[in-house]
User: Fold this.
Amino acid sequence: MFNKELIINTKKLLSISSETPFGENVDEKYAECVRAMNLCSNILDDMGAKFVNMEFAGDSEKWPYPVPNLYGEINICNNTKDNDEFILYMGHIDVVPPGDINAWTSNPFEAREENGFLYARGATDMKASVMSFLMAMKDFAKKKKNKNLKIGVAITGDEEWAAVNGSDKILRCMKEQGLKPTKVIVGEPSSREELGTNIKVGRRGSLIGRVSIKGNQGHRAYPDLYSNPNRLFPFVNMILNSLQWNDGNEFMANTDLEVNAIDFGNLNHTSIIPGSLEAMYSVRFTDKQKPEDIVNTLNEAIFFKHPEFVKSIPGYDYYRNHLSSISLIANLNSVSLPYYSEPNVLANLAQEVIKEKLKIDAKVDAFGGATDGRFVHKYFPDAEIIELGLPENGGLINGINPDVSRGGMHQIDERASITDIEGLHDLYVEILNKLSERNTVSIQRKEGLDCTTMTL
Ligand SMILES: [Zn+2]
Assistant:
């Protein structure tokens, strides 16, 4: 259903250039981030919600300046007890930089409406989702009769970059204040092409590291004078690629490793043997793994317990005798931890609402990149988490994606369909309604109270 206020507010939010990292224009970018937060807090204020602006700084070399964040809350029917439903929505208003502005059809920070789509940086990831939830909260709160739910909203300006002065710290403050959400919706893009086809219940973690191989640079014609790291690398690569972890489940893929980048040699020179080689590996891992254990597995496989098949390859003795030239480094202090939240009440309820509203059987999965959902478990291990947001590729145009190189999250000409934005809002409202019904039933059962007469 056409929702004018939602689309107007989404356009306003999209037209603020709250990008991260702040880059060189720190003051200007900080001001834009504050503007985006103010737009959100004005909506919270309008609906009678309480809110607090939070600014966090430090703890990151990547981001030495303060980051605006916002927490808002509305408690309809004040007698909510600890074990009654308290739902928290998590979102971010920072966006990745637009890249080459000339490649965009229009200004990435002026929402352009065309053929039922809004085009701007952050349309899909994830300003339209943030606005959909805020407006859902407002619409839900408008009619208090028979409503009984505490709703929180945590909005950060630090998700796309360091993620150290954002959701992690908001959640920590919530815990310190005794706020304990039972259900969490992360509003990140959650389905590929169509709204509602997927709900995420986890994400794998991410560990990055390097392999360095020391050689001895020299003239190609004098092999006794040099040691070529390129001879050793295929051995290391073969071992890394042979590692397997069978630790996934029906929702989450197994832990796996990819070598992302290799840097060695000089393609413009024909007779220099390189003196060193650097490669980057990336491990995406499930909630069954600890980063330290993964690092041990890698070290063991390369240095101590070579797989049997490796021992039979020609030149094995050469490799074994040169192991001291190899070093393995893992960036353990920038690991993104995985999370997995067993699908339960909230996932079922979201599936039910999607079926009712969109006639789609939503699948539950845990694929995709890291999100702030990973911080929830740290502070609220009992909370059930789902991720439900817009389609990752920006939504289909006339049933197809006309150009997969643009339109999706982090791409040029990022877009979101107006129908999807309104649809997401309606899903959120209905999820709030259904959770509220659960609370009313449980409170009346426990205390015989009638919540319909209570107001904030
Ligand atoms: Zn995002």
